[in-house]
Amino acid sequence: HEFQVGDITTTTTLQPSRGDYLMCIHGCNELSPQVLSLALKYRTGYAIMPCCIRDGRLVDGSSVSSSSSGRNGGITDDKSRYALQVGYLAGKFDCPRVAAISHVITNRFLIIIGDWS
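Above: the chain sequence. Below: its structure as tokens.
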């Protein structure tokens, strides 16, 4: 296998097969769910480190709201909101593992890991 760089939304660039791994580091907003969707579609492994996930930007338009009118009571603490959104995203795709690197390295420190091959 070889390392490839390109636009993940075009099929001319992305044609993974079983045994391949899709990696997404600091994938903002819709990018992390898109990569998880593609990993599921192509039955590949994946390591996804979501970055910013704005309200309404998860797979089905759901999110953990940071406003006081949100369903979660308005979590405004960034670390808690981020952890909840990553957990929701992992659960939405039935991902088996969420791991972490040191939060000293980055404040977006959670990694969704799995393999559908």
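Helices lie at 31-42, 78-92.
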